[in-house]
Each structure stands twice: as structure tokens, then as C-alpha cells.
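Ops channel
N.P.: pipeline sanity check, posting one input/output pair.
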């Protein structure tokens, strides 16, 4: 199906009020896109949207009801999306069962809840872009976790692996199962697995890809990161503009290994 190049394309970006989300929105706005920034704080969202000429909506990955409310609001406004950028994520200090549970709840389960709620609002031929990380590459895992993540064949199976990781941390047996002591890395490895599953389940109507923006100087990445936010966002935008591939993992517009 030929894309209507005269129609203004619409992107919704989660975690859009700062950092990579905001800069991705800015770069897409400059390309003529209509950008919707989805944020927890409505005031910060409106301020960020005004700065780039976009608009703001409320979304909290920790509260599934906000995802369904957002989907309903988009439907009521007859607003269809061309791209959903799943950018919002957390990275907490320390490592224990509480950190593991909260990280998986937001970065994996929350992202999948939002994706499930908003996928019907994406036009045929549109795309979902999962903002992942090189820390989530399969090489970060050991067996048997690595093989189980690589072989995950359904969203339910991916989510179950997340729950098993949290339980393993609580029982101090996660390392024996092949998981690293990094909740953030595990959440991104499982998000990558979910990307592969969703690419199969939602294709050919939608394309689903993951992107690594690199280590970026943001609140999450910290001041020592080698990349500035513009470089990281450009990597995300390149994946947004990718119109052929699905089920891939990209950095700077080039495919990288899972």
C-alpha cells in the first residue's frame, strides 16, 4: 500500500517530557510530523510540548488504567497514529527484589500494556519502535536464561520470564539461572524478546523494531555518557523512518545483533 506523503504523520512518544523522548519529538517535529508527548506529569508534558510545537497527553507506565484511558481519548478525538515510540523507562539505583520488581513492572509490563492498548490506534502500515539498549543484548545473559529469552514465542512467555527473574532475585538464585545482577539489562533483554514476538503477531499490518540509542548523557544515562541527546535521538528517528524491516534491532540506522 502506497503511503500518502501529503498527510501529516503522527507519532506518539512515551516519556516525552525530557531527554531522549523530548529530543526525538523535536527532531520529528522539524521533519513535519505531528508529535504527541505522553508523560506522567501533565504540567511538565504541556511545557515540553509547547517547547517543540507538539501536544501532550497523560500516561504513567506504572498505572495500566492510564494506557486504556489514553487509547480511549485518542479514539474519542479520532486521532490515529503512524508510529508509537515506546521510550519511557526507569533505571533505579541498587539491586534487590524491590528494584527488580519495579523495573520489570515499568520497563517491560508497563510498556507492553501501553503497546497493547495503543496498537489498534496505529494506522495500517505504521510502526512501533521500542527504545531498548545495548545492555539488553543476549550476550549480557548466560545459559539457561539466554536460550529461554531467545526462544520466547509469546508475550505471555516473555512476561513469565520477567516474573521468574524477579522471583529469582528475591530467592537469590537469579545468577544460577543465567540472569545478570542488573534489572535494567534484563528488562531490556525481555523487551527485545517482546519486540520479536510482536513483530510476528502484528505483522504485516504493523512493523515492530527495537532501537539502541547508545549511551547518552541524560538523567538516566548520566553525565559520563559519550553521546549527546541529539545523537541518541537521531538513532531513534532513523528507526522510526525505517519503512521496510520488522522484527529487527537497530543502532544509528544499521541492524545490530540481538
Amino acid at each position: 500500500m502506497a503511503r500518502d506523503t501529503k498527510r501529516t504523520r503522527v507519532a506518539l512518544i512515551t516519556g516525552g517530557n525530557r531527554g531522549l523522548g523530548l529530543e526525538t519529538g523535536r527532531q520529528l517535529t522539524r521533519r513535519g510530523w505531528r508529535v504527541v508527548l505522553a508523560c506522567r506529569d501533565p504540567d511538565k508534558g504541556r511545557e515540553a510540548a509547547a517547547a517543540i510545537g507538539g501536544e501532550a497527553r497523560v500516561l504513567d507506565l506504572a498505572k495500566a488504567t492510564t494506557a486504556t484511558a489514553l487509547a480511549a481519548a485518542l479514539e474519542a478525538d479520532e486521532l490515529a497514529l503512524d508510529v508509537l515510540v515506546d521510550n519511557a523507562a526507569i533505571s533505579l539505583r541498587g539491586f534487590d527484589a524491590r528494584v527488580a520488581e519495579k523495573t520489570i513492572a515499568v520497563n517491560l509490563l508497563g510498556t507492553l500494556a501501553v503497546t497493547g492498548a495503543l496498537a489498534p490506534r496505529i494506522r495500517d502500515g505504521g510502526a512501533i519502535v521500542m527504545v531498548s539498549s545495548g545492555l539488553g543484548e543476549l550476550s549480557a545473559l548466560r545459559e539457561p536464561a539466554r536460550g529461554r529469552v531467545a526462544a520466547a514465542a509469546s508475550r505471555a512467555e516473555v512476561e513469565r520470564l520477567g516474573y521468574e527473574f524477579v522471583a529469582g532475585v528475591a530467592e537469590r538464585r537469579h545468577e544460577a539461572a543465567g540472569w545478570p545482577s542488573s534489572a535494567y539489562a534484563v528488562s531490556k533483554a525481555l523487551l527485545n524478546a517482546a519486540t520479536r514476538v510482536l513483530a510476528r503477531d502484528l505483522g504485516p499490518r504493523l512493523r515492530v523494531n527495537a532501537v539502541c540509542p547508545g549511551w547518552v548523557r541524560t538523567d538516566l544515562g548520566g553525565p559520563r555518557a559519550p553521546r549527546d541527546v541529539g545523537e541518541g535521538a537521531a538513532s531513534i528517528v532513523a528507526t522510526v523512518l525505517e519503512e521496510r524491516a520488522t522484527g529487527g534491532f537497530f543502532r544509528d540506522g544499521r541492524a545490530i545483533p540481538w
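N.P.: looks fine end to end. The longest helix spans residues 97-118.
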